[in-house]
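We modelled the chain as a single entity of 310 amino acids. Its sequence is:
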Amino acid sequence: MIEVSNMSKYYADYPAVLDVSFSIKAGETVGLLGPNGAGKSTTMKVLTGFTPPTDGNVSIGGFDIIKNSFEARKLLGYLPENVPLYLDMTVTEYLVFMAKIRGMNESVNKRVNEVIEITSLGDYKDTLIGKLSKGYRQRTGISQAIIHNPKVLILDEPTIGIDPVQVVETRNLIKSLEGEHTLILSSHILPEVTSICKRILVIHEGKIVADDTPDNLSKRLQSTNVCEIEVSGSNKLDIIKLFRKESYIIDIRSKPSTNSSYNTFIIETSSNESVEQKIAKLVVENSLGLRKLIPLSLSLEEIFLQLTSD
């Protein structure tokens, strides 16, 4: 449904996006995740035809976004970061207007009513948009994006600036659209992407640095390079000094223990190889009693920091 091949976007000499390639199948829900300034919004703008790529190719449903821009954009629904709303229109008036400029001439009112129901705007359908809360303006923005029942739905930071209750409601609304559309969600918020998306593209400094499912990303970066260990010995500082002498250990920090006879530590290592044997040998050679040694999975926050750190 979406094909991006070696796409770059420069603003003067600055590469906002650099040599990005990915494809998205019909019906997929994909998160575009990255810190602020990573290139997410620029990528969205290129995908929607808002701005042309400097290099590379982008196609939507088989239509080139430059050569066949009109046909490609017919397939798209787009919610930009700053929602384009007419504040002096009611919700219904605005959606009727958006439907008509999308080329819908038949059953407009029926579709408007369907979308109002989908987005739970029924109580506000005759309210001026300028009087709506930020959360309900976001719902109205999503409504205009789906009014023409597009095959591809692109949402740029859809929950930015709204309160926690409306964040949850907006996420649930987006999840309800899964399967009906090929959906791309841009965000710098990890829980948002992982709660909605089955696949994540991580972008950093204009480049794709990871493309996988949340579980697979965790497995990839989890590991034997972070582990928890419990050993006997009352002097924590001596144990820490002992471990820090080893070149493969990046850091060791103490953690409250469930057993007063043991000290618990979290150890980070620089090796991607299995280091359990090395650690166990070190413990035995120094006459420390080993009670527990287990690898730990990185949290998604830690994964994100690893992927977007130099």
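As a brief sanity check on the tokenised model: The chain is about 35% helix and 30% strand. Residues 116 and 123 are 9 Å apart (CA to CA).
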